[in-house]
Amino acid sequence: MDKNRSNVRFGFIVVYVAVLAGLGWGQYSGGMGTEGDPFRIGTVADWIALGENTGDYDKHFILTAHLDFGGAEIGPVGRYFSEPAMPFTGALDGDGYVLKNFKMSNQNLAEPETHLGLFAYLDGAVIQNLGLVDFEIVVNPAARNVLVGGLAATIGEYPYQTHGGLIENCYAAGTIVTGYTYGTLGGLVGINNGGEIKRCYSDCDIWMPEGATASAGALAGSVYGDGLLVRESFWNRDKFETGIKNVIGLHAGKDIAGLSSELMQERGPFAAKGWDFVGEAANGIRGIWHMPWGGGGAPMLWNQKDIPGDVAGAYGVDLIDYGYLALNWLGDDGGYGGDGIVDLDELALTAENWLAPR
Questions:
Q1: 37 C-beta neighbours (distance < 10 Å), count
Q2: I need a surface site. Which of 65, 296, 347, 350 has the fewest CB within 10 A?
Q3: pLDDT value at position 76?
Q4: What pTM does this model have?
């Protein structure tokens, strides 16, 4: 009797673990992939797993740390020309973190795929609160009809402008080098078929051969569909003058503008279009954006902590940070410090920069 009960228990455990594995459990840093309990992406391995697990493309994800790819080449999430197509249709909340220092090239795309970007194909997906920093996308001269976007190559289904999706509070600051003369590329998005882009910016260096006929824009190469699809967004016109090359549809943009490199470093133009900054309440109290400490850069997301001692990420050094130290003593420092632990190093920085302003 006891032996039979043990066998039953063992069998139940095996089945239970198998079910969890089928749900993606154990392949990420936590979570179940639901809206209330999203899969947690906290390591580069987690991100690679997201790209490989096509069955999870309709799930919810959240970043829990900055991801540094160390200059490695990675592939896009999603496939446009596969049979069937495999768009990412879920949700990714960057939670104020960034993906940085990665490379992409069409050399390693499986034929006949021509879509290149962090996401090759988004359809009805929601991407929020995410930054892309120090990335490089290179397309060889022999390629034709390649679609390139730093964040997404394609949003929605062409030519129907269905399902679209939303990209909000995101930015791309990298380099796109193309040798081809025909295709579509954008610093943030290649082609937008009915998707909504709100409060985003592109600070990308875009290089194209002289005489190229590609549809290229700093924000998006082409925008299809009616409605206010691109809103309250900006691009660095000193790096690429055109924001959106082809706008096909009615009222495809509102409150979008190219800014000089100098104006990209000022809060004013962004706050005037409703961007929620730390230290102001007119546009909200979440404090999604802040300007780099000491100037010298475009807006940053709240989890980009660039003030020494600002361990709580509140853009200032005060009692909030001291309380964070106390609550998280000897715990994970969230990628702020060099040793991964909240300890005397963080305490020293807090003391050194006490009452640094917000």
A1: 12
A2: 296
A3: 94
A4: 0.82
